[in-house]
Design a protein that fits this description.
This protein is an all-alpha fold. The chain has three helices and no strands. Helices cover 76% and strands 0% of the residues. Helix 1 (4-40) packs antiparallel against helix 2 (48-77).
């Protein structure tokens, strides 16, 4: 059975990949939506720069929100708190867990 540190490393690695995939999905979706909007609305070409920045910021926020909800759901569903080592702990707790 893998150790808690190995489980934590794998969980963080998979979580990072999921977060990047979500971010890329929302960026692509946003720019496709923006290009469709630019083709349909005649005077929007002047503000495409600002709208592109807005798409990037919204993609970042949405991916973070969905990632954090997925993280909470997975932690509850699979009882991950008992299978993962804490990422941050005080020096007192670190000494106790090493003993």
């Amino acid at each position: 059975m893998p150790s808690k540190k190995t489980n934590t490393f794998l969980f963080m690695l998979i979580g990072t990949v999921v977060n990047i995939v979500l971010l890329l999905f929302f960026i692509v979706f946003g720019f496709v939506l923006l290009s469709v909007l630019a083709a349909k609305v005649p005077g929007i070409a002047d503000s495409l720069g600002i709208l592109s920045i807005l798409v990037l910021v919204l993609a970042l926020v949405l991916s973070f929100l969905i990632y954090s909800r997925l993280l909470k759901w997975a932690t509850k569903k699979y009882a991950l708190e008992e299978n993962l080592s804490p990422l941050f702990s005080s020096k007192k707790n670190r000494k106790r867990t090493e003993e």
